[in-house]
């Protein structure tokens, strides 16, 4: 038979209510009393019944995370961070895959599996503001990703335009003028690719360099093969740049592969900057300069989970929050130098 709150209370010489307050991390417990109860918990090996706790609150104890790509290391790393952040609140995470398809994004946002989950963290690609405004599901929703929305939901996103300007400025400061942008997509101007392309244009113009639209390459996807193909297409039409700013690290890594196969040196012939700071960016033959969340992806995950848990707490509903996680440029070998 398992250890109960009563057993812990008897061992610590306190009331069951005091043990419950410690287990539930209520603030109004003295440090001395908390330490006494915690010692009894450790000695007896007590483990709280999380299922019963959630059921008493009318919850399942499960939140969902829906991402567009399992194969993209950024989302894999982010999912792991969300799982860790949720565990600190005693929540389990159900991870869903939308494949970046609008119909699947609509399905999860409109309450698919709503009988199983308490709330949803969603990283959409194709949902529009009108889709979110038409949502009738009452479970809390937190949005991730750099698309812009005018919808009444918490949304956590890095400032794409500012971060992209910093990346392009870094290349300009190293003397580059023919800077390509790989990863443009057709579609709405609020999508991340368009925001990063806007940053590319704005920073070139600010430096007195006319943005050369022939150096902008549309890609079908956001993977390594898309970067390799885009770089090859640019070189094949005689538009050799002296630097590349890629929509993400995977496109940058694919582009670097093509540059190497064509006998071009990185960064001596072509410098390269990515976006996301995935782990792979550190382990290529040439390490990749990239835009990184600051301090890390774990901070984004914590913001998302904390926002969702706060909405689930039943407190007064405030206006939608749109925190901007920080970012930093991590300079590595692909632009000619490396710094911590």
Concise structural overview:
With 340 residues, this protein is of the alpha/beta class. It is 40% helix and 15% strand.
Specify the structural class.
alpha/beta
Helix content: 40-55%
Low-pLDDT regions: none
Distance from N terminus to C terminus (CA atoms, Å) equals 53 Å
Tally of contiguous helical segments? 12
What's the alpha carbon Rg, rounded to whole Å? 24 Å
Strand order across the biggest sheet? 7-6-8-9-10-11
Q: If you had to describe this structure to a student in words, what would you say it looks like?
A:
This protein is an alpha/beta fold and 340 residues long. It is 40% helix and 15% strand. It has helices at residues 5-12, 16-23, 31-44, 50-56, 73-87, 102-109, 129-133, 160-173, 192-206, 224-236, 249-261, 297-312, and strands at 62-67, 92-97, 119-122, 141-144, 154-156, 179-184, 216-218, 243-246, 271-275, 289-294, 326-330. The strands form 2 sheets. Strands 7-6-8-9-10-11 form a 6-stranded mixed β-sheet, with helices on both faces. Helix 8 packs across helix 9 and helix 10 crosses helix 11. The mean pLDDT is 87.
């Amino acid at each position: 038979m398992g250890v109960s709150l009563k057993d812990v209370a008897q061992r610590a010489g306190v009331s069951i209510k005091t043990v419950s307050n410690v287990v539930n991390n209520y603030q109004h417990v003295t440090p001395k009393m908390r330490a006494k109860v915690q010692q009894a918990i450790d000695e007896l090996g007590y483990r709280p019944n999380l299922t019963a706790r959630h059921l008493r609150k009318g919850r399942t104890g499960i939140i969902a995370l829906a991402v567009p790509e399992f194969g993209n290391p950024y989302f894999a790393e982010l999912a792991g961070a969300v799982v860790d952040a949720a565990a600190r609140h005693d929540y389990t995470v159900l991870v869903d895959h939308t494949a970046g398809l609008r119909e699947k994004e609509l399905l999860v946002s409109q309450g698919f599996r709503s009988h199983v989950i308490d709330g949803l963290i969603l990283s959409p690609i194709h949902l529009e503001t009108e889709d979110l405004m038409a949502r009738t599901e009452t479970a809390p929703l937190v949005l991730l990703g750099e698309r812009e929305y005018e919808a009444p939901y918490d949304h956590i996103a890095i400032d794409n335009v500012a971060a992209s300007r910093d990346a392009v400025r870094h290349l300009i400061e190293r003397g580059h003028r023919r800077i390509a942008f790989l990863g443009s997509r057709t579609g709405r101007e609020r999508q991340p690719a368009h925001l990063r392309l806007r940053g590319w244009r704005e920073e070139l113009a600010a430096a007195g360099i006319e943005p050369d639209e022939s150096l902008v390459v549309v890609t079908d996807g956001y993977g390594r093969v898309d970067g390799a193909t885009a770089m090859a297409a640019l070189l094949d039409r005689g538009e050799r740049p002296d630097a590349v700013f890629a929509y993400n690290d995977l496109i940058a890594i694919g582009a670097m592969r093509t540059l190497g196969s064509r006998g071009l040196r990185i960064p001596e012939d072509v410098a390269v900057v990515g976006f996301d700071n995935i782990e792979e960016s550190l382990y290529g033959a040439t390490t990749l300069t990239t835009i990184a969340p600051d301090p890390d992806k774990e901070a984004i995950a914590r913001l998302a989970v904390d926002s969702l848990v706060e909405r689930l707490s039943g407190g007064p509903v405030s206006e939608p929050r749109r925190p901007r996680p920080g970012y930093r440029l991590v300079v590595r070998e692909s632009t000619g130098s490396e710094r911590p």
